[in-house]
Amino acid sequence: MDKKDCLDIFERYISGTASTEEIMRLKSFLENDINLNRWLENHITNASDVIDPNIKMKMLKNIQAQTNYNTIADIPVNKENKGLRFYMKRISNVAAILLPFVILVSAYLYFKPQQTESFEVVANKGEKASLTLPEGSAVTINSDSKITYYSDYNQKERILELDGEAYFEVNHNPEKPFVVNCKDIAITVLGTSFGIKAYKDEDNIQIVLSSGRIQLTTPKEEIEMTPNDRIIYNRKTQTTSFKKVNAEDYTDWRQNRLRFENESLETIMKTISRMHNIDIVFEEPQLKDQRFTGTIDNTSIESVLDAIKLTSSVGYKLKDGIVYLYKK
Q1: Angle between helix 34-48 and 82-111 (nearest 10)
Q2: Is there a single domain that holds both residue 244 and residue 272?
Q3: Least C-beta-crowded within 10 Å: which of 65, 142, 149, 225?
């Protein structure tokens, strides 16, 4: 009998379909197969730390209940019950044999691989979304972005995935690190507030730290960030650039304010298109390379376009729900 046969018998035992012969085979191997015995003992030993002692006591009581008696000590010694005490001793021996099996079944259920479920929270174009994670950390999700986490979240670690842009307010728990995976990079924190912009159709990933400390891991290096650090990681070159900034400038999209620093008009319009769910057409391609620095009111598509129009040679028109940009 190998491990697979052993687990197969356990499954049938749990479902109540194991035959007496199978159980006796298992018992025989427990007694005679040293390697299998050690393997099973190891599982029992491991299970002893994870199974609640009260549950073990309930198991024993269930076995005792099936014999209609409690313990030998409950029965006084006299001539009339000597035979009964002998019978109860025999029953106790049976219980002693069965109890490891019951504990082992619990260990099997504990160690048997469980299917992991995934959960997704999506903010579509023109929308924002808020998410409170199972342990209380909060996430604000920007337009056209998605957060994915799994059913084992917060068991040993707090791991999730980000596609797009989000702002995180992480509850402090040094025993369970909070990790955000963004394809090429990972951000590990204990308790802090920070923003990540990691859209899959853009080469750059931006990380801005508001408070606390985080560790950024790229394919080439590990960087510890402190408040008001801004790092941009380029997926193509696998390089990073660093700058001290006012973190609020880059996370104020939550309050409908957008900060751009020497950004091309093409990049700015990508952001505006996502956040307002509107198509934008450049009538003259050279306009894409114009660069802008400043903070823009993003309460409406018109407020954004008016700000650009007032500070540049770019004009716009709205027609059939599409924005057309042209040179004034």
Answers
A1: 80
A2: no
A3: 65
Greater pLDDT, 6 or 310 = 310
Q: Tell me, what amino acid is at 86? A: F
Question: What CATH number is given to the structural domain containing 134?
Answer: 2.60.120.1440
C-alpha dihedral sign at 172, 173, 174, 179: negative
**Can you list the alpha helix ranges (DSSP code H) found in 142-190?**
none
Dihedral, CA atoms, 86, 87, 88, 90, nearest 10 degrees?
Answer: 90
Provide the domain count of the chain.
3
Tokens of 172: 């402090």
pLDDT in tens, 204-261: 999 999 999 999 999 999 999 999 999 999 999 999 999 999 999 999 999 999 999 8
Which residue range forms the structural domain that includes residue 98? 3-111
Q: Which amino acid is at 316?
A: Y
Residues 130 and 94 in one domain: no
Domain-terminating residue out of 111, 136, 170? 111
- Asked if pLDDT for residue 112 goes beyond 70, the answer is no
**Under a CB-based contact definition with an 8 Å cutoff, are residues 191 and 169 in contact?**
no
Q: Hey, what are 319's tokens? A: 């027609």
Q: How many CB atoms lie within 10 A of CB 86?
A: 11
Identify the domain boundary among 199, 232, 251.
251
Stated pTM of the model: 0.65
Same domain (yes/no): 34, 73:
yes
Confidence of residue 65 (pLDDT cuts 50, 70, 90): very low
The C-alpha atoms of residue 221 and residue 9 are separated, in whole angstroms, by 49
What are the φ/ψ torsions at residue 52 (nearest 5 degrees)?
-60, 130
